[in-house]
């Protein structure tokens, strides 16, 4: 069996204690006299054993207290040495501080019972007040170091627990910060895509048409649309960059779009989509245009905006229908467009628009679906449908 290497400080304490005890022994200074083993050399045996226990106080605290107890008991049968007693108090203290939790709980109770038993035993034997003094000394040698060790250990455990809580709090704060950064980046990506993508898509399609057609009137019309969308897209980009730079953009933040601006959005999309053979129809079946929470209106506006952008890029010639309906506890938004091969110029898609619409709906706890469907006449359509929950209490406050 390989024993752990003693701690350097404990080894120093054991060696120093043995040297001090040897010095007292050389001057003939003993704690008691007239004992069974009154030979002069006998007091050195408990001293050496206690010094060894002192050297193992931190690496083997359970073994140290057992060996130390045997040494202090053996010291009572010799003339005794004060340093042996002092080192025993440190061994008891170390057993509570560095020992197993069970040892740390058991030692104070054991030493307390030993103190009481010694006091009662000597009081019954001697029947005088000196027995109380012996009990006090026993308590000072055993019980007091154990209680001191218990207090120190409790303080250390409390400090470790506080440090662990602080580290966990810091870790949770860092995780929250990282999640907030990711969420903000996703929100910025959705806003950037929704604000600029439709303008850039119109520019791409009309510039392709202007390059491929030789008709001056058509080219002029395409260039006019390109200029309008370029100016609008540039304004949106400047506003967004200003927001990101903490106020270096517009002095007044732009109001979030609402469904009140849906007519203007459809009119602009209608102008952009005319060369592609698309006819845009807005069907608002809501009984009242008021009473919707701002997040619901913003999400609905962005979903319609992105759906029209996708129709402009991918839809075959035909009717693009935007339908708004107020259900008992939700706002239903549905956009359908012809599904199939389209002639003329197209714009590439990245799929980010569908992801953004799905995320906006999920943030409100709604349902979203997008895909190809067949209507009653057998025509294939691409349908985007979102159901955005509306809390009745929020509606009343609005």
Summarize the structure.
The protein is built from eleven helices and five strands. With about 400 residues, the chain is of the alpha+beta class.
Beta strand count? 5
Largest sheet: number of strands, sense, barrel closure = 5 strands, mixed
Helix content: 55-70%
Nearest-integer average pLDDT: 82
Number of alpha- plus pi-helical segments? 11
Shape category: rod-shaped
Radius of gyration in whole Å, from Cα?
Answer: 44 Å
Can you describe what's shown?
By secondary structure, the protein is of the alpha+beta class. The protein folds into two domains: 8-169, no CATH class; 258-398, 2-Layer Sandwich (Heat Shock Protein 90), CATH 3.30.565.10. Helix content is 63%, strand content 11%. The chain has eleven helices and five strands, in the order ααααααααβαββαββα. The protein has helices at residues 8-26, 44-55, 61-75, 82-98, 101-126, 130-212, 216-244, 262-273, 294-314, 352-363, 392-397, and strands spanning 278-284, 318-327, 330-338, 367-374, 380-389. Helix 2 (44-55) runs parallel beside helix 4 (82-98). The protein is rod-shaped, with a radius of gyration of 44 Å.
């Amino acid at each position: 069996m390989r024993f752990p290497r003693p701690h350097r400080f404990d080894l120093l304490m054991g060696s120093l204690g043995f040297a001090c005890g040897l010095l007292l022994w050389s001057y003939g200074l003993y704690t008691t006299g007239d004992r069974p083993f009154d030979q002069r050399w006998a007091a050195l045996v408990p001293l050496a054993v206690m010094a060894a226990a002192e050297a193992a106080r931190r690496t083997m605290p359970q073994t140290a207290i057992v060996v130390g107890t045997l040494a202090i008991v053996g010291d009572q049968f010799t003339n005794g040495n004060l340093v042996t007693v002092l080192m025993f108090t440190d061994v008891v203290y170390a057993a509570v501080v560095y020992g197993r939790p069970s040892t740390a709980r058991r030692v104070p109770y054991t030493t307390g019972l030993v103190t009481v038993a010694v006091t009662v035993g000597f009081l019954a034997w001697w029947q005088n007040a000196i027995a109380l003094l012996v009990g006090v000394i026993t308590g000072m040698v055993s019980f007091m170091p154990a209680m001191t060790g218990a207090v120190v250990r409790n303080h250390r455990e409390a400090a470790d627990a506080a440090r662990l809580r602080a580290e966990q709090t810091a870790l949770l704060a860092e995780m929250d910060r990282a999640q907030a950064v990711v969420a903000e980046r996703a929100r910025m990506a959705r806003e950037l895509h929704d604000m600029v993508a439709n303008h850039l898509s119109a520019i791409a399609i009309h510039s392709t048409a202007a390059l491929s057609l030789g008709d001056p009137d058509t080219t002029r019309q395409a260039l006019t649309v390109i200029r309008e969308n370029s100016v609008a897209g540039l304004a949106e980009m400047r506003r967004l960059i200003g927001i990101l730079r903490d106020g270096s953009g517009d002095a007044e933040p732009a109001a979030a779009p609402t469904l009140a601006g849906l007519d203007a959005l459809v009119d602009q999309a209608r102008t952009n989509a005319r060369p592609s053979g698309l006819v845009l129809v807005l069907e608002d079946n809501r009984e009242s245009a008021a009473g919707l929470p701002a997040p619901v209106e913003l999400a609905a506006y962005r979903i319609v905006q992105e759906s029209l952008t996708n129709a402009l890029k991918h839809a075959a010639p035909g009717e693009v229908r935007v339908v708004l309906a107020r259900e008992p506890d939700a706002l239903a938004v549905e956009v359908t467009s012809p599904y199939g091969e389209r002639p003329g110029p197209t714009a590439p898609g990245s799929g980010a628009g569908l992801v953004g619409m799905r995320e906006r709906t999920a943030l409100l706890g709604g349902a979203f679906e997008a895909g190809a469907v067949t209507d009653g006449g057998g025509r294939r359509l691409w349908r985007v449908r979102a159901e955005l929950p509306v809390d009745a209490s929020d509606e009343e406050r609005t």
